[in-house]
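BUG-567 | component: ligand-complex export | severity: low

The export step for 2-acetamido-2-deoxy-beta-D-glucopyranose jobs runs without errors, but we want the raw record kept on the ticket for reference. Input record follows.
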Amino acid sequence: MSAFTKVLLLGFLLHSDQCDKFKATLPQNIKALQGSCVTIPCSFLIEKTHKENLNSKCKAVWKDINDNTLLDPKQETGDLTQKNCTTTFHEISPQHNQKYFFRLDCNNALQFTFKESGVIIQVKAAPPILKLTPPTVSVSEGESVSVQCSAPVPCLSLPPTLTWSPVLGHIQETLQEQQDKTYVKVSTLTFTASHLHHKNNITCSAVYSHAVQASVHMTSFVTYRPTNTRVTVSPSGPVTEHTNVSLTCSSDANPAVQHYHWYKADGGTHTLMGNSAVLHMKASRETTVIYCEAENELGTENSTVTHLEIHYPPRNTTVSLPAGPVTEHSHIMLNCSSDANPSVFYWYKADGGTHTQIGNSSVLNMKASRETVIFCEAQNHLGTDRSGVIKLDVQFPPQIVSLSSKCSGDSAQISCVCETEGNPFPLIHWSFPGVSPNTSISSEPLSDNALRSVLTVIKPQWRDSVTLVCHSTNSLGSDTHSFDVPVFEQETISKGDTMTVVFISLRVVSLLVFPCAFLVMIRSVNRHHNHRHHHHRATDMVVMEQLPVSNEMQTANSDEDFENAEN
Ligand SMILES: *[C@@H]1O[C@H](CO)[C@@H](O)[C@H](O)[C@H]1NC(C)=O
Ligand SMILES: *[C@@H]1O[C@H](CO)[C@@H](O)[C@H](O)[C@H]1NC(C)=O
Ligand SMILES: *[C@@H]1O[C@H](CO)[C@@H](O)[C@H](O)[C@H]1NC(C)=O
Ligand SMILES: *[C@@H]1O[C@H](CO)[C@@H](O)[C@H](O)[C@H]1NC(C)=O
Ligand SMILES: *[C@@H]1O[C@H](CO)[C@@H](O)[C@H](O)[C@H]1NC(C)=O
Ligand SMILES: *[C@@H]1O[C@H](CO)[C@@H](O)[C@H](O)[C@H]1NC(C)=O
Ligand SMILES: *[C@@H]1O[C@H](CO)[C@@H](O)[C@H](O)[C@H]1NC(C)=O
Ligand SMILES: *[C@@H]1O[C@H](CO)[C@@H](O)[C@H](O)[C@H]1NC(C)=O
């Protein structure tokens, strides 16, 4: 039991016994801050006989050991009539560093110095020591933590200002009376522990008068499950397919992460790939979406997904064409695609051996032309790949090539050649205003879109010059070409002179063959109507009839492919 407690206990006993002795209760010593003020808690008892003398005129005087009075014009004293001798002195200086006794001076018979109990004022230049309770924090994340900072209050009228750094949560301040009646200011900081508070330096500071500052700090320890889980990729940035790449999973955790798991999330499924902090793998375009999971005894956390950008050279470069044939001169759009990352695209026109660049993006807008032979090329820093050469199915109405279309021959035989181009594949019809008994037509395809038809007249027997007409037709239109064939005099055939054939009795012969020709014509008309559905042999197609107009012969190729192309 401390001396002070004994005094208190004694005071209590005396008081309860209605003991009428002079007794002052005050701390044995009190710390004061130099330049500041100090409050001496004090209470007293007096003899009963002096009860009437204790009045408002009484004064509190403080004497040192040499009976000198502590003089302070701003001295504040409690209500003496309530036996409260608590006194505050200002501007404490080192000379106040001594023992003082309370003297009650009521300007009457009641004048008493309480020599039994004095207080030693300990004047300090340094601020008082602050106390943190508890001295350290060791909690799990999520728990509520309360830390108290206690600062002595030497002077009640100038209590210190307490601040926390950082301000982690809610702060509550109280003034607490100690057993020795002095006060401490208590600031309680309450917060919910988070991983962010781990190893925090929590500081409590007290500012006393004259900006004298005291502080105390501690470090908090918080255990928490993995947080801030993240993936770093080496090398960073895009990686070339099939090269080595390392992924590192890191996470903040206390205690440290115990297990790592790697998952790939391509295609919606999550596949385990590894169980160590660092994942070594070969870059693959099948593995681009990756995340890791970190685990300690308190829990797990997944990183956000990391998207690997995999670079690979162009392959499978293809051109997507409009569905079906296109009409010449119409606007068309072609797309080039390639398995490539990254990719830039170029388009080339293939003109024989030379290639002319005609575009530099994946989409090519152009006018359809029958000569269009193009390809596209995908490029990146890893390589180049070309599509196949593309020939568009460009449709155009028939055109007869006049340069190649002509007649030649003599009185024995005349051959007229009609060459035409068209897509869909054209049909050739011949017409002329007379008929020869010996006429044959043969046709041969020159290319996918070109046809040559040869009309041969054996021993032409017309009297006037005639006009043979070649008609080329397809679903988009038609073209015609007229051949003016002169009369060849049979008797005056001269070698080297083409077209010198005399025909004499064409009409007679025509009349002779007319019934036959008429039948053939009817067949021909039927075929003409059905020519899209039937296969005809060129040799079946000879048509002769006498009508001045509409003498027609159809010709088509016997080749199956041509027939298909026509349809
Ligand atoms: C005594 O007086 C002081 C100063 O006026 C005051 O702060 C304190 O509360 C009083 N004590 C009691 C017990 O009334
Ligand atoms: C904590 O803060 C105090 C006051 O700011 C400083 O003196 C001390 O060095 C700090 N301690 C650590 C571990 O940072
Ligand atoms: C890639 O990794 C494999 C094994 O993981 C190793 O053998 C090889 O040397 C590495 N290649 C390079 C270029 O580092
Ligand atoms: C992390 O990912 C794994 C695998 O997909 C999954 O099983 C687990 O639930 C995830 N954890 C969290 C915390 O989301
Ligand atoms: C090209 O495409 C084909 C068919 O889609 C595929 O089988 C092949 O693997 C592809 N080649 C490359 C290199 O991507
Ligand atoms: C080409 O791509 C565009 C969009 O990029 C699309 O609208 C168009 O239909 C594609 N054309 C072909 C022929 O694939
Ligand atoms: C692509 O072609 C356009 C027009 O032909 C041209 O203006 C542009 O500069 C070209 N861009 C590149 C990247 O070659
Ligand atoms: C038709 O020509 C053939 C041979 O080219 C000949 O044998 C035949 O007599 C001719 N017919 C007529 C009616 O002139």
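Assignee comment: Attached the raw record above. Residues 158 and 548 are 134 Å apart (CA to CA).
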